[in-house]
Amino acid sequence: MTGPSIVSRRGFIQSAGAIAAVGVLPNIGFGAQIDPNLSPNPEVASKLASLKPNHGVTLGKASVIGDFNATAKRYRLDKTGPRGRDFTIKMCWAPDRKRALFCGANHGVPHRLNDVWEFDLPSLTWGMLYAPDLPRGYGDLGKDTSDVEFKDGVLITKRGGPAVIAHTWWGLTYDPRHKALLFMNTWVTKKKKAVEDLGGDPEQLYEGPPLWAFYPATRTWKPFKAPKPYPRAIFSGMLEYIPDLGGSIWHANNWQMRSTWLHDYKKGTWKDLKANGGGKAFQNAAPMPEQIGYYDPKRKIIVAHRHFDTHHFDPKKNKWTKVLTGDKEDGKTPYGHDARSVLYHDPLSGHGLLVQFQTNTLWAYDPDKPSWTKLAPQGDPMPTGRKRLAYFDPAMNVVVVIHDTTVWAYRYKIN
Hints:
Largest sheet: 5 strands, mixed
Number of helices: 6
Strand content: 35-45%
Shape: globular
């Protein structure tokens, strides 16, 4: 894998010192143990060092690197990077790598791919960690299934990737203990027919939740096969790692499933937490599908926002609470939807920061009040476009919005 041009470490350390002086968290990594090893861009460091609170800045065009195969080149991923993919816009921060991870499929056009990407802000680089296998169809495995096999009850590619590839919605999280990106990979693929077409026995098909792990360090995928009991793998659920529980929760609240389950990574098992005692109490308090949200390690709660309603989950109390009920006309509440907005935690301020792509707006959430505030950023405007991605970079203390390869950063607060 090739990278952007090399810059001097001393020059970046000087810039990094300036950044720390204006309040960026001082845990900037130089990638010495991380593959690909990327050299920081001094121009990016300079712009971030001078970025004031409530200001945005256009940082430039990102490099796109990776071992691009024919499928990647067919869809010009080597030129554009991954881009936003319909109901797949969540990015996950990997604290050990100090980079943000991304994967998941478009709705069908122009492709449905199982590639995995990583974005590094200091070097302004998109890195493809896993080149896509052959493209899949909307409800089948696509025109060419020569790279797929039915193995141990799972449809898997010969390189070890998921042969069925879904949207992520908010069903994507990062487990820092096991350094794994976890993905609840549920989709409408006619799996039994696909197994038959491959010459397998559809009765041997694993019917449990299709949870997959991707390991950035080794660039490999792994499917989980859980024994019963296990949750339903519905569309638009929420997967979120909670360190206090030692695992990741899978949550949904609609007619398909009304419960919050906990996954044990080591045992590969699921447990129904029976939050709120279940029943009407859970139904009335917990967010419905299409929610977005984050874990707040200081308050030890999950904040979830769905349409115009805001919810908290307290793992210690095992309880969901609807803390705000908004509406479209109140002017005080953003629209939360897993295909139209993202919501991440800002550890410096303790607030949540929401990027609303439909209205091209930024919002801040104070969980202590609780209340939302519409922000009015100064400086360079946030880029527009239908295929944007966004994440919060705690190492640089900025919200990052990416349109194709154009990168924009916004700083909410400083020390």
